[in-house]
Automatic annotation (TrEMBL):
It is found in: Cytoplasm. This is Pilus assembly protein CpaF. The lineage of its organism: Bacteria, Bacillati, Actinomycetota, Actinomycetes, Kitasatosporales. PANTHER family: TWITCHING MOTILITY PROTEIN PILT (PTHR30486), TYPE IV PILUS RETRACTATION ATPASE PILT (PTHR30486:SF6). The keyword Nucleotide-binding applies. Keywords: ATP-binding, Conjugation, Cytoplasm, Nucleotide-binding, Transport. One of its GO terms (cellular component) is cytoplasm. InterPro entries: P-loop_NTPase (IPR027417), T2SS/T4SS_dom (IPR001482), T4SS_GSP_E_ATPase (IPR050921), TadA-like_ATPase (IPR022399). Its main location: cytoplasm. GO terms for molecular function: ATP binding; ATP hydrolysis activity. It comes from Streptomyces olivoverticillatus. The keyword S-adenosyl-L-methionine does not apply. Residues 54-336 form the Bacterial type II secretion system protein E domain.
Length: 386
């Protein structure tokens, strides 16, 4: 089908305000003097639907079950990540204006503004897909569009083990951590699988416990019968209505959580989370960006400073609030895996440091200096490590 005919059908549907159903597409084609078979009409309807209310030419990529990210850096440069690094696709946009138009339409679907006055957007689409877009001239040359797919269900721990994210037998250690109600953070870089792992771990929580999630963008999908989900909200065009992650943490504390979860600790809310975990809320957890597990105390120290919490006070709360750090990495092949598990300790000056307890091994987790402390923490809560 020619582009001109497709545009004519699109215009007729736009004028009538009708959904691009097969029957309406067939009627529009008849009005244009074209008769097509059922298969062709269905194809046109699917293409128009993806352009009008879907992700346009990116829709087939997002529908593939193994795709986690779709990235557009130019009209003829579209990349996907299937868990083994970036791959260039053969998808091509007509021009830079088409990429910009798609980004603005997706932003509008998410209820956000994207234009020259506000040239970037970070939002969640109705199906859960995470949207990020930057317009020129901030993005040099072409609109930069990033879509992160959030799958409708969490992976089972056995599935992560089969995929190589957890070493052989490692799921027993992670189950012991959850059963012992230890508070922990999942750390790692962007795209290392922090949210995926945390969703899976939350699915191991006892079904009679109440999980309250506080997130910037609702991405966690734990397979659990009692989950309360809270999501931040940006200010409107008048500058009112802002709801921050710190607001959500404070509200979550009044909702009788058995497990308080912060999707990503990235600002002043770290002080409220640590305070909550120091007031009897065991088993709390969250994610944080860090290059290594040993860098987490320094990272939290920097975040705490944004809330006016001095170093000594932050480390004092941290030592009492958290028990361990689970760190993920993405290796050179693109595979995401749990690289190490650290327990927390305090040095002579009273500052928190991390001690390796278990590190990745081809045959399973290998025990390190902190293994005894990890075992003691699990046993103290009535459980035990394998």
């Amino acid at each position: 089908m020619s582009t001109a005919l497709l545009d004519a059908v699109r215009l007729r549907l736009a004028e009538s305000g009708a959904e691009p159903t097969p029957a309406r597409v067939a009627e529009a084609l008849r009005r244009e003097g074209r008769l097509l078979g059922d298969a062709e009409v269905l194809g046109v309807a699917a293409r128009l639907r993806s352009e009008l209310i879907g992700a346009g030419p990116l829709e087939p990529l997002l529908a593939q079950p193994d795709v986690t990210d779709v990235l557009v850096t130019a009209p003829d440069r579209v990349w996907v990540d299937r868990g083994a690094g970036l791959e260039r696709t053969d998808v091509v946009f007509p021009d830079a204006a088409a990429v910009r138009g798609l980004a603005q339409r997706l932003a509008a679907i998410a209820g956000r503004r994207l234009d020259d006055a506000r040239p970037w957007v970070d939002a969640r689409l109705p199906d859960g897909t995470r949207l990020h877009a930057v317009l020129p001239p901030v993005a040099v040359g072409s609109t930069c569009l990033s879509l992160r797919v959030v799958r409708p269900r969490a992976f089972a721990l056995e599935e992560l083990a089969a995929a190589g994210t957890i070493p052989p037998g490692g799921e027993q250690l992670l189950r012991a951590v959850l059963d012992a109600r230890l508070s922990f953070l999942v750390s790692g870089g962007t795209g290392s699988g922090k949210t995926t792992l945390l969703s899976t771990l939350l699915g191991l929580v006892a079904p009679d416990e109440r999980i309250v999630l506080a997130e910037d963008s609702a991405e966690l999908r734990p397979d659990h019968p009692h989950v309360v989900r809270l999501e931040t909200r940006p200010a409107n065009q008048e500058g009112t209505g802002l709801v921050t992650l710190r607001d959500l943490v404070r509200q979550a504390l009044r909702m009788r959580p058995d497990r308080l979860v912060v999707g990503e600790v990235r600002g002043p809310e770290v002080t409220d989370l640590l305070a909550a975990l120091n007031t009897g809320h065991e088993g709390g957890c969250g994610t944080v960006h860090a290059n290594a597990a040993s860098d987490v105390p320094a990272r939290l120290e920097a975040l705490g400073s944004t809330a006016g919490l001095d170093r000594a006070a932050l480390h004092s709360q941290l030592a009492a609030a958290l028990s361990l750090v689970i760190h993920l990495v993405r290796d050179h092949s693109g595979r995401r895996r749990v690289a190490e598990v650290h327990v927390l300790d305090r040095d002579r000056a009273g500052f928190v440091t991390t001690v390796p307890a278990a590190v990745w091994g081809a045959e399973g987790f290998e025990q390190e200096a902190g293994w005894g402390r990890l075992a003691a923490l699990c046993e103290r809560s009535g459980g035990g490590v394998p």
